[in-house]
Design a protein that fits this description.
Layout (H helix, E strand, L loop, with lengths): L2 H16 L27 E16 L5 E2 L4 E2 L4 E14 L6 H14 L3 E7 L11 H6 L9 H10 L7 E7 L6 E9 L13 E10 L11 H11 L1 E4 L16 H13 L5 E6 L6 H21 L7 E5 L12 H7 L1 E6 L7
Parallel strand pairs: 10-11
Antiparallel strand pairs: 1-4, 2-3, 4-8, 5-6, 6-7, 7-8, 9-12, 10-12
């Protein structure tokens, strides 16, 4: 090939590099993951976990988190609690690149994309050091015990040395709402956890596009419950909601629970299995325990409404009975449900 033709062939490639086009995903990225759309990664870094939600909540710290020794808790601090579409990506950074260098790279990249850096710092500039990683706990909600895949990815961040950890929060206004981004950058102290060597820099990078929640709930009345149970022997309810990774029933569930109580009061002979179902986020055994505890919470709520204990039987089945594919968030949302199943004379012992 002649030199002019070779240069013509290579010119678009060089132009792309000069424009800073995003790098291709690493072959070592966890299956199904990719950089958040429009965002670059640190050169040579790899994704070791990623989660996405069409609608979720996430907090962003706007000032240092200070610990009150007198009260044994954090002092009030400025923060934003945003809701919308979220992508959380966990990166391992190549050896030799420290927290400060990574933090400055993220600051520069976000500014180049039109973000305003709302808060940024390392160690004592971010939080009072020595009080249980409050960025991880208070801001990012990392309070689990590695019982599911995301908690396993969080574990090095929960156990990082705060004095060396960096954090930034950034905001980009848009016509339909703000886009928020945050990066929590730590030096790994949990050697070989998820095959991550101690001393390696790790990043949790969050992007949240604010959007209003779509109201999808319609209240199922007790009469409709009775009709469906008579016809099908069961009914799936989506109006009974729980806190994330918890058996605590959310207040907006009360209308549906009141209708279940009315159903049972109107049909004294009816006995029900109260069956908790989950999606596939986390291990089967973890979700079996979670779904059982959620079913028990529903039974306890109905008993408090005057329903006899011998009419209700809590059962947790984890993700053993999906009604949709768990490969998408919409499918997972359909699989997270409580079902009422007519015992119909069967024995529950």
């Amino acid at each position: 090939m002649s030199l002019p033709r070779l240069l013509a062939t290579l010119r678009p490639l060089f132009a792309g590099l000069l424009l800073g086009l995003p790098l291709a995903a690493s072959a070592a990225d966890v299956a199904g993951s990719a950089d958040p759309p429009g965002f670059k990664r640190i050169t040579g870094s790899e994704i070791f976990f990623q989660s996405k939600a069409d609608f979720a909540a996430l907090s962003f710290a706007l000032q240092k988190i200070e610990w009150s020794g007198a009260e044994s808790k954090v002092k009030p601090f400025r923060r934003v609690d945003a809701e919308g579409r979220r992508i959380t990506t966990y990166y391992r950074i190549p050896a030799g690149m420290g927290v400060m260098e990574v933090l400055r790279n993220y600051e520069q990249e976000l500014r180049a994309q039109g973000f305003e850096i709302a808060f940024s710092g390392i160690g004592e500039a971010v939080e009072t050091v020595g009080y249980n990683n409050q960025i991880a706990r208070e801001v990012l909600g990392m309070t689990g015990t590695y019982g599911n895949p995301e908690e396993r990815a969080q574990w090095p961040f929960q156990n990082a040395a705060e004095a060396k950890a960096g954090y930034l929060a950034a905001r980009k206004p848009g016509a339909s709402g703000n886009t928020w981004a945050s990066a929590y950058i730590v030096e790994n102290t949990v050697d070989r956890w998820m095959n991550l060597p101690a001393g390696l820099t790790l990043v949790r990078f969050d992007v949240l596009e604010e959007k209003p929640r779509e109201q999808r709930m319609s209240l199922v009345r007790s009469e409709e419950m009775a009709r469906r149970i008579t016809a099908d022997g069961r009914i799936a309810l989506y109006g009974i909601l729980f806190d994330t990774d918890s058996a605590t029933i959310r207040p907006e569930s009360e209308a549906t629970l009141a209708e279940v109580a009315k159903l049972l009061q109107a049909t004294p002979s009816l006995k029900l299995l109260v069956v908790g179902h989950t999606d596939t986020q986390g291990s089967f055994s973890y979700n079996r325990s979670l779904s059982q505890r959620r079913a028990e919470s529903v039974v306890a709520n109905l008993r408090a409404k005057g329903i006899a204990a011998d009419r209700l039987f809590p059962v947790g089945v984890s993700f053993a009975a999906p009604v949709a594919s768990n490969a998408s968030e919409d499918g997972r949302a359909k699989n997270r449900r409580v079902e009422l199943v007519d015992v119909a004379g069967g024995r529950t012992d």
